[in-house]
Amino acid sequence: MNRIESKNLQVYFGDNHILKGITTEIPKNTVTALIGPSGCGKSTFLRTLNRMNDLIPNFKKEGEVLLDGDDIYSPRLDVADLRKKVGMVFQKPNPFPKSIFENVAYGLKIHGHDDKEFIAQKVEESLKSAALWNEVEDKLDNSALGLSGGQQQRLCIARTIATNPEVILMDEPCSALDPISTTKIEDLIQKLKKEYTIIIVTHNMQQATRVSKYTSFFLHGEIVESNFTDKIFVEPKEQKTEDYITGRFG
Amino acid sequence: MGFSKIIPPKIAQKIMNGVFIASGIVTLLILVLILGYILVKGLPAFNLEFIFGNPIDSGKEGGIFPMIVSSLYVTLIAGLIATPFGVGAGVYMVEYANNNRIVRLIRFGAETLASIPSIVFGLFGLAFFVVFLHLGWSILSGGLVLAIMALPTIFQVSEVTISSIPNSYREGSLGLGATKWQTIYKVVLPAAIPGIVTGVILGMTRAISEAAAVMFSVGASIQTPISIFDPGRPLPLHLYMLATEGISLEKAFGTAAVLVILVLIITIVTNLVVDRYQRKIMGK
Amino acid sequence: MQKKKKLVEYLIEKGLFITAIFSIVIILIIFIFIINEGIPAISEYGFLNFIFGMTWAPSDSQFGVFPMIIGSICVTLLSLLMAVPLSLLCAIFMAEVAPDSVRKVLKPVIETLSGIPSVVYGFFGLIVIVPLIREQFGGTGFSMFTASLILTVMVLPTIISVSQDAIRSVPSEYREASLGLGATNWQTIKNIIFPAALPGIITAIILGMGRAIGETLAVIMVAGNVPLIPGSIFDPLRTLTSNIALEMGYATGIHYSALFTTAIVLFIIIIVLLLVAHYFQKKYSMDAYGGHA
């Protein structure tokens, strides 16, 4: 069954036509990678899925985006509820200027949990799932800003999964990290895909082949080709896709 | 962390939206009320005789021309003196200063200067310029006091503006073999002009609005000052005297309106000019 | 040629250095002159008598400024009590909530409010607020409350614009992260943005406080200027700044000197307030980064 569907999605920022009719389906409990050159619209598409683009003045969209069959842009739907269901990990690690513990507990608290034991247990679980627990268990009260970049990004992932989302959007989550940290995050993605639907935007084609089952190739605001990752990189159907993955432009 | 357990977040959001909008409206209303009242009550006093006439019977009748001249005169002197010092200090801090202790000391000096109440400047002006330097009650004494008051504003805005000029501009110029000063003079300062002008105008609006600082240094003469050694009576001081000595309410409203309009014109014109210059250098 | 160029560069640097230390030189001269003029009153009347004396009666050589110290502190605190909530709400509204079109209206409103000369505020208070207070609450209308209302309006633009800058400089990543977790806008403001902007907001409040305690003529016009400790907020009072402005015009001898001593007391209070404020600023900027980073 398909988790997310978009139908003829058009996105404008003012006069700029960013997405030009995206129609695609994203399957459940697996990893889908969005690739393409800078400015192709892949990040904009990702941020349309949890309505992060609503923050940008003069953002306008046409067409539909469905999550489990429901229109996420329906006026009846609450944006905060949507974002609880569709979590996001950003390009630059962005922990809050609070302690490690408070960073993970934050989402739980804003969603109304106040049982201290429950929160503590959930924080531990989430940090374990994000493969960070062993490194921080004895300094949970320290500022999150004291962690390394890779640790910060895993903290952000822990923060996201603490609120039990169903979908996790990752916007180039490793672009600011060193190779060792990148490996750790990629391993983590492999682990998480059993429970979550993950959509990852990446510049790095090796990364797409390592972590994703499906890949969509974006160019100039359109999807050129979508397929199984091992198909698209081995025998692309479109000339443009082949040009991109063989490095002839981009 | 104070997460509310009683009010659901979505309702809290709605309530707070209402509170925020109300706070914006209250602020707007305060301005409209004060400005509207002063202008509506003051405009009937407006005519050529009021603007260009001399006061008669200590301001009960007649106009406020000498006060307008005094105001512009002291403000101009303040600007002329404070600008080179303020901008120079800003340039030094960004482009030359490399000793952290001196930087901190200078910044602390400017902050302290900015936090001294205007009446204390008034006292100082009396003791130093009027008495000690024998400048007497004069436009020059008043202008010097206002220059000191405007200095920290001009300095702080200049420093911020100059430090926001991208380093690539400097490197571009130095790379062509220009000296440091040539680079500052030909590249950095022109790019920083809009911000510097804004700072100078901010300092000068502070000067033109000031009464407490000049009340013991510029005198209270109602003659039109000609030389910088003549005494005068700037508009804010005139308004203060008209109002507190119960001389004429009508003329007080008129003076308040002139003062407000003067400040508004200065602010609006500067904004327009700075905006145009900015567009020109950015190539739009 | 090369030598001449070097000399010019050297002279310019030294010239600019002189302009830079000018502020410090001025501060020193101000301190020296104010203290020097104030010393006769201190040596004749005694500094402690001066500060804690309850009676100000220059004709009887009584120079106690304690009521004025209390007066200055009272109007400043009362005006901050009213101005801080309104300005912070307004600042958050402008920085985080209002659409661009509304912001474009409010920004010049704030700038204009801050540009209006203080005497004009005082005049408005004298003509409009004083009679209003007299009718509503009795008394003369010249009171601590009236003065505080006028000061509230005067410090609004300072606190709004500086705290707005502080809020805007909170990295948008924090905002996105919080909203991305499903927090409402208000939850994000309350739990993330406000704490992160707190050091800047405290600076804004200090600046507002400085403006309130230093204001002179606007306060004189509405406060009644009686040199007694006010018993209620509807009693008149006199501030330290008012004391100087009211009597400087005719003071001579030891009285003249006592007004400079009043300025010294004002200095001391301002320095103490600045130190207290800096302490809180430091404390909260540590908290914002998790206590012990």
TrEMBL record, chain A:
Any one GO BP annotation for this protein: phosphate ion transmembrane transport
CDD domains in the record: ABC_PstB_phosphate_transporter (cd03260)
One of the record's GO molecular function terms: phosphate transmembrane transporter activity
InterPro entries reported in the protein's UniProt record: AAA+_ATPase (IPR003593), ABC_transporter-like_ATP-bd (IPR003439), ABC_transporter-like_CS (IPR017871), P-loop_NTPase (IPR027417), PstB-like (IPR005670)
Gene Ontology CC: membrane
Span of domain ABC transporter: 4-245
EC number, UniProt record: 3.6.3.27
SMART domains: AAA
Keywords of this entry: ATP-binding, Hydrolase, Nucleotide-binding, Transport
Pfam family, any one: ABC_tran
UniProt-listed NCBIfam families: 3a0107s01c2
Name of this protein: Phosphate import ATP-binding protein PstB 3
Gene encoding the protein: pstB3_2
TrEMBL record, chain B:
Topology of this chain in the membrane: Multi-pass membrane protein
Keyword tags: Cell membrane, Membrane, Transmembrane, Transmembrane helix, Transport
Organism: Methanobrevibacter filiformis
Name of this protein: Phosphate transport system permease protein PstA
Gene Ontology BP, a term: phosphate ion transmembrane transport
Family in the record: Belongs to the binding-protein-dependent transport system permease family. CysTW subfamily.
InterPro entries, A to Z: MetI-like, MetI-like_sf, Phosphate_PstA
MF terms in GO: phosphate transmembrane transporter activity
Domain ABC transmembrane type-1 intervals: 68-274
SUPFAM superfamilies per UniProt: MetI-like (SSF161098)
Subcellular location as annotated: Cell membrane
Domain of life: Archaea
Transmembrane parts of this sequence: 20-40, 64-92, 113-133, 139-162, 183-208, 252-274
GN (gene name): pstA_2
GO CC field: plasma membrane
UniProtKB/TrEMBL annotation, chain C:
Top-rank taxon, per record: Archaea
UniProt-listed InterPro entries: MetI-like (IPR000515), MetI-like_sf (IPR035906), Phosphate_PstA (IPR005672), Phosphate_PstC (IPR011864), Phosphate_Transport_Permease (IPR051124)
GO CC field: plasma membrane
Transmembrane segments annotated in the record for this chain: 12-35, 69-95, 115-133, 140-160, 192-210, 254-276
Localisation per UniProt entry: Cell membrane
SUPFAM superfamilies: MetI-like
Membrane topology of this protein: Multi-pass membrane protein
Keywords: Cell membrane, Membrane, Phosphate transport, Transmembrane, Transmembrane helix, Transport
Coiled coil: none
An annotated GO BP: phosphate ion transmembrane transport
A GO MF term: phosphate transmembrane transporter activity
Family per record: Belongs to the binding-protein-dependent transport system permease family. CysTW subfamily.
Protein name (Swiss-Prot/TrEMBL): Phosphate transport system permease protein PstC
